[in-house]
Backbone:
């Protein structure tokens, strides 16, 4: 009895101490954006490896440091999981030797790295461009593979048969608990996240007890001769390859785009002429807007008469700086033709072009900017161009491999090194801190779908008026009710409609984001005068 009690005390103490220590370090160094990750350090497979890989993929600055980090990650995770499994082993079941448990868990650590690494890389891609689809795509395989990997360090032949309903239930509960713990940690001030992380660790210990017991003494294993785990893991890895293509479809992809601001005439009360900018991989065949005061922005630029040229999706891959210069020329041409002040309406990448133009070039006659689904605090991770070393070098090559495979069936190829993405990486301090900041002399509003709440770590994200509605990325601009709000804003009326659940959803997603690369760590960024929201959770900080 005493031995069992001591073993349980050791299990809960170990499961609670490591999250508390990690949380104390994060609070001590004021790493606000990463505080929700700490409870995962003692969670059950595969959430523990997902925690480790995200830190490694962001925080390595050479191939050597990545290789050593990966080796250390595998060995330490295997040792630690073997110890937790041994402490959680039920008394009623025959206990394997410590050597066998260690060998088994080291093997699982390698399998978990192979299976989870592509999804962890997608979470880093999400941190770069702040598209929630990447976050959702990176979480799906965790829920699917968790019941299979949860028993892998416990029993032999874990790859055969389907996990029991108990394992599915406990693994899902582990995900829900980690999500809740991340939200609570992101909600409490001061040093309170440390005891919250410790309590989450205690919950991890209880889940280790349940998972090990369910794996050791299954009621019944269905399909015991079928190698179910390798099949599911292989599908998860393949899914990482095709997720990028699915994301391109889900976010719209190339196609006709005709929101109400282009298909309907503006009311007479709108004083500006309007330039409308579509997003990434969009195309335009040259069809004019219904109102002569409204023109479609072209990523190709203007013809000899100052009119926008039709363009194909590849044109949207140019850098934001290049697109901003093109927009400046369009602003001057439209102002000369109409004599009116200019309003800019941009969606997704188009919104980022507007924001880049307003910061880097003379604003001239621009008096209003409407930003639909702007990227919220992008540029939170980094990887160097091919041929260079630096922070995230291995991550960059992993993303290049994933995108190369994903591009095989696609006519429009997206690349992690295309100028649009690299311009975000290079100018990350600005986009991370100032995307939704006021611009002197220009009225700015952001229309944010609620899914954007998952696109940034907890904390401030905007100092401009916002209008929020339940929708996916890019899904607001075609809404007729939203068009009425845009018209009211352009006519000079104040618009501000935040939703209470936005902040809650932002906190709920905090546990599953990759840690931000601090601005002071990257030499490319450290010379800037921008504040770092990753540290303090505040945007629009003085330069």
Residues:
């Amino acid at each position: 009895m005493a031995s069992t009690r001591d073993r349980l005390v050791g299990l809960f103490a170990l499961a609670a101490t490591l999250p508390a220590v990690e949380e104390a370090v994060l609070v001590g160094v004021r790493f606000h954006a990463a505080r929700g990750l700490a409870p995962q350090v003692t969670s059950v497979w595969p959430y523990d490896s997902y925690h480790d890989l995200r830190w490694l993929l962001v925080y390595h600055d050479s191939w050597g440091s990545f290789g050593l980090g990966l080796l250390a990650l595998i060995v330490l995770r295997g040792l630690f999981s073997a110890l937790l499994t041994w402490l959680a082993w039920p008394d009623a079941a025959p206990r394997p030797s410590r050597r066998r448990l260690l060998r088994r868990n080291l093997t699982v650590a390698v399998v978990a790295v192979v299976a989870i690494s592509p999804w962890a890389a997608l979470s880093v891609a999400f941190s770069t461009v702040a598209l929630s689809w990447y976050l959702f795509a990176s979480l799906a395989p965790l829920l699917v593979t968790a019941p299979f990997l949860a028993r892998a360090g416990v029993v032999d032949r874990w790859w055969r048969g389907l996990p029991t309903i108990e394992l599915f239930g406990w693994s899902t509960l582990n995900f829900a608990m980690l999500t809740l713990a991340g939200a609570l940690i992101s909600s409490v001030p001061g040093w309170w996240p440390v005891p919250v992380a410790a309590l989450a660790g205690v919950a991890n210990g209880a889940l280790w007890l349940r998972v090990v017991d369910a794996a050791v003494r299954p009621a019944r294993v269905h399909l015991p001769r079928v190698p179910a785990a390798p099949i599911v893991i292989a599908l998860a890895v393949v899914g990482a390859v095709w997720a990028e293509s699915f994301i391109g479809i889900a976010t719209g992809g190339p196609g006709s785009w005709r929101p109400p601001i282009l298909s309907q005439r503006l009311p007479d009360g709108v004083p500006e002429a309007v330039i409308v900018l579509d997003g990434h991989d969009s195309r335009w065949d040259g069809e004019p807007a219904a109102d002569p005061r409204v023109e479609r922005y072209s990523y190709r630029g203007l013809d000899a008469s100052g009119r926008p040229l039709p363009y194909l999706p590849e044109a949207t891959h140019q850098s934001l700086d290049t697109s901003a210069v093109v927009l400046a020329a369009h602003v001057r041409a439209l102002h000369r033709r109409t004599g009116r002040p200019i309003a800019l309406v941009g969606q997704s990448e188009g919104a980022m072009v507007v924001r880049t133009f307003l910061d880097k070039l003379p604003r001239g006659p621009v008096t209003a900017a409407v930003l639909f689904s702007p990227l919220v605090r992008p540029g939170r991770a980094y990887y160097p161009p091919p041929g260079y070393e630096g922070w995230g070098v291995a991550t960059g090559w992993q993303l290049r491999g994933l995108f190369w495979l994903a591009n095989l069936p696609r006519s429009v190829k997206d690349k992690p090194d295309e100028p649009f993405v690299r311009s975000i990486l290079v100018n990350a301090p600005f986009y991370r801190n100032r995307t939704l900041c006021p611009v002197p002399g220009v009225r700015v509003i952001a229309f944010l779908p609620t899914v954007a709440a998952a696109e940034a770590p907890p904390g401030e994200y905007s100092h401009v008026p916002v209008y929020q509605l339940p929708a996916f990325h890019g899904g607001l601009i075609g809404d007729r009710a939203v068009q009425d709000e845009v018209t009211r804003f352009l006519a000079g009326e104040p618009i501000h409609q935040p939703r209470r659940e936005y902040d809650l959803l932002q906190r709920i997603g905090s546990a599953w984001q990759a840690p931000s690369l601090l601005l002071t760590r990257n030499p490319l960024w450290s010379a800037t005068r921008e504040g770092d929201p990753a540290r303090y959770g505040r945007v629009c900080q003085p330069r």
Q: What stands out?
A: Confidence is low (pLDDT under 50) at residues 249-255. DSSP finds 18 helices and six strands in the chain. Strands lie at 273-277, 294-296, 342-347, 366-372, 443-449, 466-469.
